[in-house]
Design goal:
73 residues; alpha+beta
Length: 73
């Protein structure tokens, strides 16, 4: 197999390729393919972040909560 700059492979003890690492800074043309659904799985953290609220929504909720606290005057 020819060597390509920015792409490395890892083999198991049988000599089979098990991992491929692509430097996307050098090979930006692969990004559209990697962004297709099912090609690269999202991590649990990424999924949780998508389900989260925005910073503006957090600010609004926090401001309303603080304003509704029973402050002593």
């Amino acid at each position: 197999m020819a060597r390509i700059a920015g792409i490395t492979t890892q083999k198991n003890t049988k000599g089979e390729i098990t991992h491929v690492t692509i430097n996307v800074k050098k090979h930006q043309e692969v990004m559209p393919m990697l962004n297709k659904p099912g090609i690269v799985e999202k991590t649990k953290f990424q999924i949780e972040c998508e389900e989260g609220i925005s910073l503006d929504e957090l600010d609004n909720r926090l401001t309303k909560h603080i304003e509704n606290l029973p402050w002593e005057k």
